[in-house]
Design goal:
By secondary structure, this protein is mainly alpha-helical. The chain contains 6 helices and 2 strands, in the order ααβαααβα. Strands 1-2 form a two-stranded parallel sheet. The radius of gyration is 27 Å and the shape is rod-shaped.
Length: 198
C-alpha cells in the first residue's frame, strides 16, 4: 500500500514538474501566430505529447530508485520499530514497578520517569529524522528522473523540431502519431542501461 502511494506521489510530482517546465520554457511563439491559431488558421505548429506517468512507471532508473527507497524505508521502519518496542517494554515495566511500590524512594521513581520521557523524546526525534531523510531521498530521486527526462527531451527535440511537447495526461483528444511516449521511454532506458555498463 505504501509503495503504491509512493509511486503515485512520484508520478504526480514529475507530471506537475514537467507541465511547469514545459509551460515556462516554451519557444515563445509570437502573438501573431497565437492569434492565427485562435482565428482557426493553421499556424503550422508541430506538437507532440508524452505520457509522463507511463515513462515514470516503466523507466528502469525510476524503478530502481523506487526499489532502493523502499528498502531504505523498510530499514528505517525496522530500526524505529525495534527501538519503539524496547521503549514500550521499559515503560510498561516502569508502570508495573511503580504500582507495586518497587522504587525505594519517590526520587528514584521520578528519575526513572524522567529517563523514560527523555527516551521517548529521542524516539520522536529519530522518527522525524528518518522521515526527513526519506523525503529528501524521494525528492532527490524525483529531481534525478525529471532531469534525465528533460535532458533527453531537449536533445530529442533538437532533431524532431517540435514547437511543443506536452504532458499527455492533459491531452484529452489527439492523434496517436503525436504520442512520442514509447520512443522517449525506449531511449531513456537504453541510455540508462548504457551508463550501467560503463
Amino acid at each position: 500500500m505504501k509503495g503504491t502511494s509512493l509511486v503515485v506521489s512520484v508520478v504526480l510530482f514529475v507530471a506537475v514538474a514537467v507541465l511547469y517546465v514545459l509551460h515556462f520554457t516554451g519557444n515563445g511563439a509570437s502573438v501573431e501566430n497565437q492569434n492565427d491559431a485562435v482565428d482557426g488558421i493553421d499556424s503550422g505548429l508541430k506538437i507532440a505529447y508524452i505520457k509522463a506517468d507511463s515513462v515514470l512507471i516503466n523507466y528502469t532508473l525510476s524503478q530502481e530508485l523506487h526499489e532502493e527507497l523502499t528498502k531504505q524505508q523498510e530499514a528505517y521502519t525496522t530500526e524505529y520499530g525495534t527501538k519503539r518496542q524496547s521503549f514500550e517494554k521499559e515503560a510498561a515495566a516502569f508502570q508495573e514497578r511503580l504500582q507495586r511500590g518497587g522504587f525505594a524512594t519517590e526520587q528514584r521513581a521520578v528519575q526513572e520517569r524522567d529517563r523514560l520521557l527523555g527516551k521517548e523524546q529521542e524516539l520522536q526525534k529519530l522518527d522525524q529524522e528518518l522521515s526527513t531523510k526519506l523525503a529528501k531521498i524521494q525528492q532527490d530521486n524525483n529531481n534525478k528522473i525529471l532531469d534525465n527526462m528533460m535532458d533527453y527531451l531537449d536533445r530529442y527535440n533538437e532533431k524532431a523540431g517540435y514547437d511543443y511537447i506536452l504532458n499527455g495526461a492533459n491531452v484529452l483528444v489527439g492523434p496517436e502519431v503525436n504520442n512520442i511516449t514509447a520512443d522517449v521511454l525506449k531511449a531513456l532506458n537504453e541510455e540508462y542501461e548504457a551508463t550501467k555498463t560503463e
